[in-house]
Specification:
8-stranded mixed sheet, about 25% helix, 10 helices, alpha/beta, 22 strands, binds S-adenosyl-L-homocysteine, 7-stranded mixed sheet
Length: about 450
């Protein structure tokens, strides 16, 4: 790598895009110096204007496309460029999958220290979506005041400016009816949208969740106040839509980026969403995590189950279990499953879900995995044959990995939504007596740069 930057701001350079970065930007090199270019597609030959330089890397924008990559395509969404939601719509879907596969591969080699030849032998083809559009079962639209005008859409790339999105190509189009109706209601009743800077105005977000099984929608209006004027009118109108099953308010009065506040005010319809994955039914409370891409979730869970290699005799831990989705999948093939999750409401759902499905060999614990797991192991002497982890983006706490190693399960299935922290944790586990045996990507977030990965690690005896 070059010690000093060979480029200056406003330089024009010819650049070949080799790969994509973690935010979906194209990556090219000038004399070994890395340039990140938004909407650059691997295979593009570009004329790039340099807009920012740092010591070892910089940023550029496309001035012109000299030779487009064969993988370059026209984005379906007219605002895919400015909107912060999709960063890969300008690449063909097959190319997106190839790029995500490469991201997993490169990250496991670079950060995880996995030998590339070994990875070639153990990596399975990424699981792509049959339909990469309109797949999401959950949307959270920010509602903002712009000099008295109501804006509803998504945050722009790297900002909190609203990009209005009359149609979102990864969301269910039915949401448009709900949003249209709420906007009309707000205008008619003079209800103010939220102003983030002044921390004023009432309506902050529209959250909509869909049950794939029942094809119905639950609407939550997040408000910066304790009540919504004329809520009965909005209730009548929303519940009058044929597919809306439930309407709630959520109170969030904090100056925060966190969308949902702790208090729910249930207005009409069931308080919980019901859905199913395969033959297991789930009750999901509004504050609980639930995977956003139903078709891909099914593939992901089946892969996790396959990697767990259960015969019916195993004691299994499902750490970061949410509402117990993976736990209940595993329970049908295991002796006992112990699920651990930090959100109490999700654990309530998990217990209820076990009961709902007549599953008696699953127990659930509220708390941090890194605290509950050592307690169960050291104080209650509970051990595991198989451990499944599905942590948030920051990955597993190092102390948790130590406890897992002490417990010494035969197999460890790692489900990850961030290849970098996955690779970091794999490096730790490989140094402590486990070997990476299988890797498979899963495209849960089509058109975004995110990718899910499932790995199997085996204990070296
Ligand atoms: N396996 C579940 C949930 C995965 S998302 C599913 O597939 O639906 C990650 C979950 O980890 C979230 O529910 C989050 O609340 C939980 N979580 C975050 N930090 C945690 C910690 N330290 N210990 C236990 N759970 C945690």
């Amino acid at each position: 790598m070059k010690k000093s930057c060979p480029l200056n701001k406003n330089d024009m350079v010819e650049l070949y895009i080799e790969s994509i970065g973690s935010n979906g930007e194209g990556i090219g090199r000038v004399d070994g110096y890395t340039l990140f270019v938004r909407e650059g597609v691997p295979g593009d030959q570009l004329m790039v204007k340099v807009v920012k330089t740092k010591k070892s890397y910089g940023y550029g924008i496309i001035a012109s496309i000299l030779e487009p990559s064969p993988d370059r395509t026209e984005a379906l969404c007219p605002v895919a460029g400015p909107c912060g939601g999709c960063s890969l719509q300008h690449m063909s879907y097959q190319a997106q999958l190839k790029a995500k596969d490469k991201t997993i591969r490169d990250t496991l080699c670079r950060i995880g220290g996995v030998d590339p030849d070994r990875l070639d032998r153990i990596m399975e083809p990424i699981m792509g979506a049959d339909n990469p559009y309109h797949y999401r079962n959950k949307v959270q639209y920010p509602v903002r005041d712009n000099m008295g005008k109501i804006q509803i859409g998504f945050y722009g790339k790297g900002s909190h400016r609203i990009v209005e999105t009359p149609r979102c190509y990864i969301q269910d189009t039915y949401n448009e009816n709900i949003v249209g109706l709420i906007r009309e209601f707000m205008v008619e009743k003079g209800i103010k949208a939220y102003d983030e800077v002044k921390h004023k105005g009432l309506v902050r977000h529209i959250v909509i969740r869909k049950s794939n099984e029942k094809n119905i929608f639950h609407v939550i209006l997040v408000i910066n106040g304790q009540q919504l004027p004329e809520v009965e009118v909005l209730k009548e109108r929303l519940m009058g839509l044929d597919l809306v099953e439930s309407f709630s308010l959520n109170v969030n009065r904090d100056k925060t980026n966190v969308i949902l506040g702790p208090r729910m005010i249930h207005i009409d319809g069931p308080a919980y969403l019901e859905d199913s994955i395969d033959d297991i039914s789930y009750r999901i409370s509004p504050l609980s995590f639930y995977q956003v891409n139903p078709d891909q979730t099914l593939k992901l869970y089946h892969k996790a189950l396959e990697y767990a290699g259960l015969t019916g005799k195993e004691k299994v831990f499902d750490l970061y279990c949410g509402i117990g989705t993976i736990s209940l999948f595993l329970a049908k093939k295991a002796a006992h499953v112990y699920g651990v999750e930090i959100i109490g409401a999700a654990i309530d759902d998990a217990r209820e879900n076990a009961q709902l499905n007549g599953i008696e060999n699953a127990s659930f614990y509220t708390g941090k995995s890194e605290e509950v797991m050592p307690r169960l192991y050291e104080e209650e002497g509970i051990t595991a044959d198989v451990v499944v982890v599905d942590p948030p983006r920051k990955g597993c706490d190092e102390s948790l990995l130590s406890t897992i190693v002490d417990m010494s399960p035969r197999r460890l299935v790692y489900v990850s939504c961030d290849p970098s922290t996955l690779a970091r944790d794999i490096k730790i586990l490989e140094a402590k007596g486990y070997a990476l045996d299988k890797v498979c990507g899963c495209d849960m977030f089509c058109h975004s740069s995110h990718v899910e990965t499932v790995c199997l690690l085996n204990r070296i005896d």
